[in-house]
Amino acid sequence: MSDSRTVADFFAGIGLVSLGLERAGWNTVYALDYDQEKADQYAVNFDGSHYVMKDIAKEKGASVPNVQLAHASFPCTDLSVAGARKGIYQGESSAFWHFVRILSEMKEKYGDENPSFVLLENVEGLLTSNGGKDLRAVIESLNDLGYRADLLRINASHFVPQSRVRIFIIGIHKSLVKGYDQNDLRQEFIMRSSNTRPQKIVDYIHKNSDLDWYFHDLPNLPTRMTTLGEIIDTTEEWWPEQRTALALGQLHSYHEDLLKAAKNRDEYSYYPAFRRMRVRDGKKQSTVELRTDGIAGCLRTPKGGSARQILVRAGKGTIDARLINGKEAALLMGADNYDIHPDFSLNQALFGFGDAVCVSVLQWIGDNYFNSVIAIPEIKNESNELPILSLQNQLA
């Protein structure tokens, strides 16, 4: 296995995967997406010469460079519990199968062992879509291509003040782990040893134990240090009084009471909120629901007014409201110093960030998974077998 640490990023969007893996020492040399606005934003922050503007259905594996890692955040539209849940074989989410085809074509050109790693990302709904059969089909496709699979569930709230739960499927080529026995009791210990594999992940793996798995020895996810207050853009203007009053008039009564109490404090408190259709005052109507746990809700693509997240500020005798802006969205995605295209509207910026992967999560996976595997001496020598030294030390 070469140590070139190169990446091909499919469904690349505005480049947050590239940014996260770059911070872990990986270099994206190919990025593919079909959205011109995302490509423009990517070019502001990275070398855009390797960005391919094309529908993945029209791309060929022979056109993709030989890389060590292939990543795909394939569309979640038909897998999310908020959608129609058509599944992996229909609609936008079926684009995954073009990624599988391209991987197969890359292997025909560069050899079966290339790329060494595959990383897939999607919403937690993939775990239960079609009764879990869609996720099984995804992992089976990796197995058929010569990869063992690992399954992680990571909430971005471990790194940034945003609740964003995602499933990560990692494929490691079998040639890197010759002799690996997933049924060894020590592998059960490793599987359960990190909170990246909570009980629902363990249950899924056990239910599908006939698949080819690999469990890397991972640490627990970190405890977040950044607070919501620290990402607030103090230069952003708040809504005029009339517009704020309109939003606050759509609150539940218990949230009204909460804001009234917070208004009298000497410091500001911040409450992210979404508009949702809820039963309020005895009838179903547009309702502004506050989040009161100190973190933002999951950033979404602003396809409608209800998808744009509101920020409410209470304290020092005032209650104000406005939309979360592009700079704050970047910080909520771990994209510090990300340069937002000056000609982009707020909706365009929010669409790019809402359709992306948290930078901090990708950096953590790069450091603790891919870099850790590469660093194992036995993988670089002729034996090519993966030892279980860290586990043996724990059991000693």
How many structural units, i.e. domains?
Answer: 2
Order of H and E elements: EHEHEEHEHEEHHHHEEEEHHHHH
Q: Give a count of the beta strands, DSSP E runs of length 2 or more.
A: 11
Terminus-to-terminus distance = 31 Å
Please identify the top-level CATH class of the largest domain: Alpha Beta
**Global geometry:** globular
Number of helices: 13
Largest sheet: 7 strands, mixed
Kindly report the name of the CATH homologous superfamily of the largest domain.
Vaccinia Virus protein VP39
- Our Rg estimate from Cα atoms comes to 22 Å
Written account of the structure:
The chain contains 13 helices and eleven strands. By secondary structure, it is of the alpha/beta class. Strand 2 (about 25-35), helix 2 (about 35-45) and strand 3 form a beta-alpha-beta unit. It is globular. The model is unreliable at about 380-395 (pLDDT under 50).
